[in-house]
Amino acid sequence: MIKGRPLIAVLALANLVAMSSAAAQDNERGRRLYDRWCAECHGAEGAGDGSAAAYMLPQPRDFTLGLYQIRTTGNGELPTDEDLARIIRLGMPGSAMPGWRTKFNDAEIADLVAYIKGFSRFFEQFGAPEPLDFGKPPRLTDAGLAEGRKFYEEIECWKCHGDAGRGDGPSAPTLQDDLDFPIRAADLTENWNYNGGGSVEDIYRRLRTGLDGSPMPAFSDLLDSGFMTDEQLWHVAQYVRSLSPAQTPVVREVVAARRIDGELPASPDDSAWNAINASFIPLVGQIIQEPRWFAPTVDGLWVRALHNDEELALRVDWHDPSQSPDPDWLDWQKWVAGTMAPAQDSSQAALLPDQLLVQFPVTIPTGRERPYFLFGDSRRPVYIWHWQSDPDRASENRATGLSTLKPLSAGAETLTSAAVWDRGEWRVQFRRRLASEDSTTLLEFRPGIAIPIAFFAWDGSNGESGTRAAVSSWYGIYLEQPTPASVYVSPVVALLLTAALGLMVVWRAQRREGALQSS
Amino acid sequence: MSERYSRFSIALAFLLSVFVAAGCGGGEQAEQAEEGAAADAGTPAQTAVVDQATAATVSGSVMFTGTAPEAESIDMSDEATCAEKYSTPKMTESVVVNGNGTLRNVFVYVKEGLGEMTFPVPTEPAVLDQAGCWYTPRVFGLQVGQDLLIKNSDGLLHNINAKATANRGFNISQPVVMETKRSFRTPEVMVRFECDVHGWMFAYAGVLTHPYYAVTGADGSFTLEPLPPGTYTIEAWHEVYGTQTQQITVGANESAEVSFTFAQPAA
Fold first, then answer.
1. pLDDT of B13 above 90
2. Chain A residues within an 8 Å CB radius of B23
3. What is the nearest CA distance from B33 to chain A, expressed in angstroms?
4. DSSP A456-470
5. pLDDT over threshold 80, residue A450
6. What would the pLDDT profile of A340-356 be if each residue is shown by its tens digit?
7. Residues A75/A76/A81/A83 CA torsion (nearest 10 deg)
8. Do B29 and A25 touch (CB under 8 A)?
9. How many angstroms separate the CA atoms of A94 and A187, rounded?
10. How many degrees, rounded to 5, is the angle at CA B171 between CA B166 and CA B175?
11. A360: which strand partners?
12. Do the beta carbons of residue A98 and residue A91 sit within 8 Å?
């Protein structure tokens, strides 16, 4: 037995060596996959400087630093292979990194992981430790959420993420990552954009490990020091989760404008809005017309609408960490300009307002054709509501292409607006009469048909104006029609008819049974 | 026993053949692994005891020429607790020129010349305090493996973001009065500390395998002792002006002077 052991050990070692040589050969496949699918963003040498990097914020990961945000290992430690594989499989929501699980199989992902690790000497030098033990979350309770909120304030999450979690804390404009690129404090109300996943478990892990390479620190030391318990940290995670909707919003093509009797809301915070469901409209950077824009602040709007046969009220909410113009964000603006293509003079920063634009066709199209979504063209002009934060006002305009916004003559002004700024959120309400005095310039809103509607948003503090905008495609707004009387009568008639038929069937069956028994 | 050894040598031969057969990549890896093993298992670390009878001293000062950039006042208005601690606004300290024309906060250390000597790791921790939304000290040294005690004396949120390149950095949160210990695994000049909550807070740590370092203070001087006699490369590092090196030889019981001069480039 004893004599055999060295041989077994040596054979095992030989086997290992043979395996590592096989792994080295497979790495050739890892290299090929990397060069083909990853290098354009992450760079041929893994330094995060591929040709597409200038179009991305957050920037692609620089693998040479061995710094990874999403890990199951402690703060400052290297990720496990599984951590890296998970990111390749699932991507990094909120960034340009897509998930690759439908593209690569597990073996290919393992090769890529091995290849990517080779860019940093740290993996050979230190190696990754065992994953932390994260345990399980406590049951979700109101008391737990309240405690989570208490600690959210006490451990000062709000310093970066803001009181309402919208990424608008006082330190937000000063945040840079380890490579001095500007970085946003996460908007905690949009958990579908969390880099490492939006579940309570994901959030808890980020709190324990931090997001290495970013300003987000780890909070594990607070447990070690006895300042708070593990359960209390779980409550913070549960509270943060509660800031986002229970379900990721589903994008629908049409915004319904409910019809009400009587007065429309006077302001965006009017309680009449509370009963109205909001539709989520995603926005993306304007990347069609030069200069293009790859780093928009606003990634979506929540839209509500009401009408009373006389007037239409539209409320648009969106998150923007700055109430522009705000001099505190001038450095941020320079950093973004210095990072993003097209190259700009990054020393220039201007105090710009926030803006929102709601676009309609001038007349409701009869067929399926709609104006060009970027401000129409000369053949199909668009009718535009344009709101800006400073001075706070809205105007009606006509456009026949980008940068051709022309205010309608003062006499035609029928639009009013009211705006509220609240901790990283704009809520802007528009109201306009449905009828049009001049249907050649001013859209006439008609109930009972989906009217094309599109949105544009600008964050002045992010250096956005003109073509540097966040845009949506066309959606529809549908003004509900008055409910015809037949809607109330028909169900009653149907109910009565069904009951009568049923009784008849029963009656006939009983008669037949009686006849059979008597025979 | 002899049979066992002969079997072992056969196995070893087999193993070697596998190494050869493993081809280029595998072979390289194996070589590196062997090198690493040799380094780890090599001569046990000899803790150097500098012979006091022959110990030498290198000392000097760091001069400054030119016009230093003017310090700027720091806006702490978002952090009233800290702002209140200063009767006049806190000024930036990236360049501090002393009254005698010397430069403060220069990290001076032995860069080369100690060979394979190793030195005991101090049991006392190095201390980095956060008080008044300011790091104290701004520039300091510590040894590989020595504890760094990070203190939050402010009782408000600081994060300590240690941006290392040779070491693994870290980024930890201290939202209350508390202490945290960390250490570094490998030498690095310098590790930069930042607080992302307060963008004006910076500190720098020189991590070395030996205790021969000093940071210039109010008189701009430094002393490195007790050094074994020898020839050393002395480096002076400043956060704005970068590094300078000089070579110096000191004999037994000798004291040698080294002087550095940093200059503000003409505008």
1. no
2. 21, 24
3. 10
4. EEE-GGGT--TTS-E
5. yes
6. 877 776 667 899 999 99
7. 40
8. no
9. 10
10. 155
11. A383
12. yes
Nearest CA in chain B to A215: B196
Counting one residue from chain A and one from chain B, the pairs whose CB atoms sit within 8 A come to: 126
Q: Concatenated DSSP letters for B218-264?
A: TT-EEEEEEEPSEEEEEEEEETTTEEEEEEEEE-TT-EEEEEEEEEP
Report residue A249 as tokens. Answer: 């919003």
Q: Mean pLDDT over all residues of chain B?
A: 87
pLDDT of residue B27: 38
Question: Minimal CA–CA distance to A392: which of A440, A334, A324?
Answer: A324
ipTM score assigned to the predicted complex: 0.81
Residue A518, pLDDT score:
61
Find, among A415, A470, A467, A460, the residue nearest to A284 by Cα. Answer: A470
**pLDDT for residue A2:** 44
Give B199's DSSP letter.
Answer: T
Identity of residue A504: M
Best mutation target, A29, A150, A155, A178, to test chain B (most B CBs within 10 A): A178
Report residue B86 as tokens.
Answer: 């200063």
**Is the N-terminal amide bond of B137 cis, ω within 30° of 0?**
yes
Residue B48 has a pLDDT of 67
Task: Write b or e for each residue in A289-311: b if 16 or more Cβ atoms lie within 10 A of its Cβ, otherwise e.
Answer: eeebbbbbbbbbbbbbbbbeeeb
Report CA A288 to chain centroid distance, whole Å: 21
Backbone CA torsion sign across A27, A30, A35, A40:
negative
Q: How far apart are CA B140 and CA B106, in angstroms?
A: 9
- What DSSP string describes B51-68? -TTT-EEEEEEEEEESPP
Cα–Cα dist B198/A175, whole Å: 10
Interface check B170 vs A, CB under 8 A: yes
pLDDT at B2 over 60: no
pLDDT for A519 equals: 54
| pLDDT > 70? residue A246 | yes
Mean model confidence pLDDT for chain A: 91
Question: pLDDT tens digit string along A214-231?
Answer: 999 999 999 999 999 999
| The residue type at B182 | R
Cα separation, A303 vs A430, whole angstroms:
11
* Residue B60: strand pairing partners: B222, B258
Chain centroid offset of residue B78 CA: 32
CA A73 to mean position of chain CA atoms: 27
Q: If DSSP codes are grouped into helix, strand and coil, which group holds residue A480?
A: coil
HSE value, Cβ hemisphere, 13 Å, CA-based, for B52: 0
- Distance, CA of B60 to CA of B258 (rounded, Å): 5
pLDDT given at position A400: 94
CA distance B82 to A277: 45
Looking at residue B28, its pLDDT comes to 40
Amino acid identity for residue A441 in this structure: T
- For chain A, how big is the Rg over CA atoms in Å? 30
Cβ of A154 and B185 within 8 Å? no
Residue (of A71, A28, A67) closest to A46 by Cα position: A67
pLDDT tens readout for residues B181-204: 999 999 999 999 999 999 999 999
Q: How far apart are CA A333 and CA A349, in angstroms?
A: 6
B19 interfacial to chain A (CB closer than 8 Å): yes
pLDDT band at A197 (very low <50, low <70, confident <90, very high): very high
β partners of residue A386:
A357, A395
pLDDT score of A374 more than 50 = yes
pLDDT beyond 80 at B240: yes
